[in-house]
# Entry
Amino acid sequence: MTQLSQKQKIQIAEQLTERDGGYRCFYCKTPCSMKRRPIIEHLNDKRSDNRLDNLVLSCQSCNIKKAADEDCVYSDIAFLKREQNENQIYVREKILNRLTKSTKKEIPTEIDINTNNYKVVLDFIESRVESFDSVEYKDALNSCVYLCKSKTSHGSQQCVRNYIQAMTSSVSPYEIIKRDNKKIIVKRAR
Ligand SMILES: [Zn+2]
# Structure
């Protein structure tokens, strides 16, 4: 399946609206409407990869900007989103969206929070593995919850657990192994 039919596009748009908490552009959050129809956008830019995890709704303007994105801002966000989709981290976004409806201005966007927290966790694991060759899973989890909360004032244990899961997935540079009956994170053996 390379080309989506009109009927498939409508179905997919409905599923993406439900998953990402609104009928709007994933990137800039501008609401979509009949007049401002969204584009079904491929996060990894592969138009043949029509897995739901690889799709988001995008407005025309963001779609164009992403194609001409020299600083890779859009593709970084897209990469992160796809990783999150594949690890089902969007549950948190849904909850956040519900929150933001009432207190929109006080809360940073879910992209900000997710990107920042993801980076906090990645930085922590990178530096620990770099310095000590490994980091204990439990320590990484608790430390990252603390770091996320103090740096972005958001970060649940479940959220950090999902990030670590993404960072130790089979395509990532880290893996979780067992040593002395403890789960530890190490550089993936290639
Ligand atoms: Zn947009």
